[in-house]
Specification:
Helices cover 70% and strands 2% of the residues. It is mainly α. It has a two-stranded antiparallel ribbon. Strand 1 and strand 2 (74-76) form a beta hairpin. The longest helix has 38 residues, at 204-241.
Amino acid sequence: MGSQWLLRRLLGAALTIFAIAVLNFFLFRALPGDPATTLLPRNVSEAQKASLRRELGLDQPLIPAVVRTNQGAFKIDLTTLPASLTQNQFLTYMGNLVSLNLGQSFAEQRPVVDVISDHIWPTVLLVGVAEILSIAVGMLIGIRAAWKRGGAFDVLAVNASLVIYAVPFFWLGMLLLYFLATPHGIPIFPGQQMQTIGITFDNPLEQALDIARHLFLPALTLGLGLLGEEVLIMRSSMLEAMREDYVTTARAKGLKEGAVVRRHVVPNALLPTVTVVALTLGYVLGGAIGVEEVFAWPGMGRLTVDAIHEKDFPVLQGLFLIIAVCVVAANLLADIVYLRLDPRVRT
């Protein structure tokens, strides 16, 4: 049963990634505008634009027998059908994808993999630190709020979580930046960038400390934005678990309330939290775009914004695909962890 269950999950994940890859191709080509017009100065001739389109591969049909006009519209041309069956943007894209080649960046004229690799680790650092802090602190607050339900701590935790959850990431980041990184407030943290520009570090420790100081505010912004949901989910799961019969039985055996919570309530309340953490990964990465833009953090969020402005389709496709694969992989991992925690899900 376990191997069949895992095989079905893997097959479902593979089909999902394939569907995302196909959608990924058409989604960004449906955007208005012409990359050649965006990348070239305004006073260039149509011949120069046509040359750039040819260099970027945009002169090929989108799919067999479909071409894109200079005005951005799509039309069917039966005269190009034989050649378009083998030479078109979609087949080129899918062929490159099979070989893990995401193409060439329109703006930087180098492989998309290299462009994204320059920005992926800052995002991994930011999102990783924010996720760990929000999960740890959120679970502790949710457990305490459920244990002391109806008390002052519970009321404060629930209302504060609702407020924080409703605040947009970028607005929260701007507040923290204003009050903790500018002369108008208490400038105890650097405002933007990942590390101090123009400084030569004597050793790796100094560089790590400088990065940590720059990381504090963006990680705090993203962590606070995620904290509210973690608190509410953990509190709700705790309250549901505390009403189960096994909790009543444990109390009847004479266990102290603290032991009942630690040994019986918390382990079972963690099950829904595992799923929520995986499902919110896409939300976290989306929020990271706004946070990175506010703090000029050189991650995938800022790269996404720049690629949108420059109509850099290959970079956008690569970013979208990587984020989608990460979300699918996180959900698959959550299913496996959930299975280990509760084998009943097999049925």
